[in-house]
Amino acid sequence: MLKMTDYIEELKWRGMLQDMIPGTDDFLKSGMQTGYIGFDPTSDSLHVGSLATIMLLKIFQKAGHKPIALLGGATGMIGDPSGKNTERNLLNEETIRHNVSAIKKQLEKFLDFGAAPNAAEIVNNYDWYKNMDMLHFLRDVGKHLTVNYMMAKDSVKKRLEAGISFTEFSYQLLQAYDFYWLYTHKNCRMQMGGSDQWGNITSGTELIRRKGENKPAFGIVCPLVTKADGTKFGKTETGNIWLDARLTSPYKFYQFWINASDEDATKYIRVFTLKTREEIETLEKEHQAAPHLRLLQKALAEEVTTRVHSAEAVRNAREASAILFGRATQEALGSLSEQMLLEVMEGVPQFNLAKSMFEQKLPVIDLLSEAGVFASKGEIRRLIKEGGLSINKEKISLAETHLTDQHLLQGRYLLVQRGKKNYYLVVVE
RNA sequence: GGGGAGAUACCGAAGCGGUCAAACGGGGCAGACUGUAAAUCUGUUGGCUACGCCUUCGGAGGUUCGAAUCCUCCUCUCCCCA
Length: 429
Fold this sequence. Notes:
By secondary structure, the protein is an alpha/beta fold. Helices cover about 45% and strands about 15% of the residues. The longest helix has 16 residues, at about 170-185. The mean pLDDT is about 85. The protein binds one RNA strand through helix 13, helix 16 and helix 21.
């Protein structure tokens, strides 16, 4: 017997409910329902920006409902104008096919596909668009929503001055039809999404209503995840944080969460973990009592990294973090086996230096410059002057410092550190 | 088509013949404080074989002992009038 919980109530305390279509609440309480979220195949990996909506689905399933993840194999070819202020370039079909299959694999990590009766499903809207011809689309879909209605949407209104192509303008019709199709074929009466999807979701419920369906459709949206300092969530100096380990190493992924500010961490732990309200509140109390332990950030990083990567990835990342940031010093570094060292350094940028160069007993500044760790010698000099350069956790205070074989970890590695958080591994061979 | 304004380092913006590798602000990086947080304060922010040298101020020429600064042409941007 399936245990149902109150989805809306849970979203509320997690701070994940921005808006909902009236009645959604009662609709969900009336029994197991099917709901969906669409994902755009604009690249071949999701990034943490999509994580909040994935969690919407995950929590939906946990609450006892049936989640459907819709991949926009067709809509991705059109381009959603929501939240965009300029027309986008179209991706070619091959790229989209590739992206769809890659994203599908990622989503499979989050949802439970074996949990009858509310097992998750993945669908691709290309399947119902590939055989549809334009006349049918215009007669069966386009006829039901007026241009006036469509133009009133924010996503369109914002673009009226700058210009919007007919193609992007039509996007909401396609998404509306997706909803209708799922409604009729999968008995799916609910759509979720980020707040930028509100317009598209209501176009869908409207289409369903005007097509003469007697049972209404529902929807909710969650707020955009933000950072307290106003910068964009999910980006770092070096770019997006991706879910794919090849694009963002598990170590870096783990560090991304560990580095969340206190203020953000209390928000994120509600959105990105499945911890209960009690667990979270207890953690917060413990965190306040001993903030330097960073319990909140650790709990957040561990759970998210486990789900996206694996428990083993977390172990490695935690170990690497302990060595790089903990009190561990040269001795700890030196005592690592080569295999451990490499595991710990996985995800840390690596540079090569010819053994012959190293043996010339050049000053450290020349060696680092040769290895290409820094952009220029001026930069290295400045860094040394400012006390921001360490090798093997030992501060370098003179540009003329010479390195000897004793500095080499396992006879061939140098751990270069810029500031507190940036590490580079130089391999001498 | 006519008239005007402008193009400076990552971005914004001063400078209008030497003292300009170029004020100031933002951003970046680092240091201090701390907790791999936030706030704050400080330093730094073209390159090099470095008390000196080289390359930079839209592009190409020119004037001058000397130009980001003056002149000529070109390219692009913005504004106003038709």
